[in-house]
User: What shape does this take?
Amino acid sequence: MQIRAIRGTKDILPGESMQWSAAENLARDLFAKYGYEEIRTPVIEDTALFKRSIGDTTDIVQKQMYTFQDRGERSITLRPEGTAPVVRAYLENNINNKQGLVKLFYMGPMFRAERPQAGRQRQFHQIGVEAIGSASPYLDAEVIALLVNFLKAAGVKDFEVKINNLGCDKDKKIFCDQLKEGLKPNLERLCEDCQSRFGKNVLRILDCKNHDCKKLIPVITSYQCDDCESHYHKVLDMLNLLGVKYKTYAHLVRGLDYYTGTVFEVTAAGLGSQDAIAAGGRYGNLIKDLGGPDVPAIGFAIGIERLLMASSPESIVHSPETKIYIATLGEAARKKAFELASELREAGIVCIMEYDEKSLKAQLKAASNQECKYAVILGDDELKKDKIILRDMSKSEQEEISLKSFVTHLKSISYKAVPGTDIKL
Ligand code: HAM
Assistant: This one.
């Protein structure tokens, strides 16, 4: 029996991989402009890291983690998200001792054992940022503006930024108490999951997708202390200043327990039920809870699969590089072509050639199938004359060029653009 990819995982095939690297290059380039540096953390971590950070009673920890015992009987988990590993690495490597505000970005696979559907996988990929070391509302606004600028540059057109402020620990407790008060009379009408959430972690009821549960949620406003309220207003002010459009949502809580203060989510049109392409927020206690100092932080993560579903490929991959195909006739020509291909690549031109004996017709067909802009034809006759034939594949026009000036000529007509470097904000 043929072995297939694990359910909920996908191969990223050559046609799509260009969009993936374009998105990644775009992130690298744009994030650097805001002072972020890349961090790469392991895919496996101590299970306790996620239990302590994401929260024992969250869906991720209770139902979705890929956890196993390794040969040394340690409990290991495939990372379900990137924030906790980044904070662990930040503490373990004393990154905080070298700088004040630390700005890090990451990209890579995450793993959650969810029911697969369009836009929801068991191995999915995130691009994320974490800014550790400042509680300033300027930073909140800058992080959200960075996300919005990234999405615009990636060609996502129809998206909405939802924002809320959960308040500090004390505010969160008041909110939870009021929520419980409001839900208590209707406890039996809540779904089974929410009835259990009511006792364990009432905030999670706000994430419930069940419409009947949603209807029972009481409207709770003004539970934040003066400091948190003023922080929230400053963030919104700065977003207005930067021209970032957003909507405030009093019930936006997000599914991870580490959030306090500002939380946000970006949804895109046309993605069905899995429409959150990015999400993030402040995590005021996480660093302290993981054994570090009392340092505030904020970040976000973008789901790459959903990002690519919401953006048009042509807007993210700007100009594919001009590809040259060298077609040869005869062994002597093939040997010369082999040398020329190497020269072209050294000159930065993308070039492929045929190594086996094939008819010119078959070779030109291959050039067109592989979307080559030009075919270079080299036969023994051309070789004797020190010439090559250059064929424009789209126009079906060809001209003879001297072998000597060939590389310079190709350099002058081939436009090379590295995907993702041409950012227009
Ligand atoms: P999250 O909301 O769990 O946040 O995930 C962020 C994004 O990852 C989602 O908006 C979605 O695009 C994508 N995503 C999540 N699960 C899946 C899945 N099963 N399949 C496909 N895409 C998925 C976090 O992970 C936080 N660490 C974000 C953060 C960073 N907060 C502060 N810093």
User: Anything to note?
Assistant: The longest strand covers residues 102-111. The radius of gyration is 27 Å.
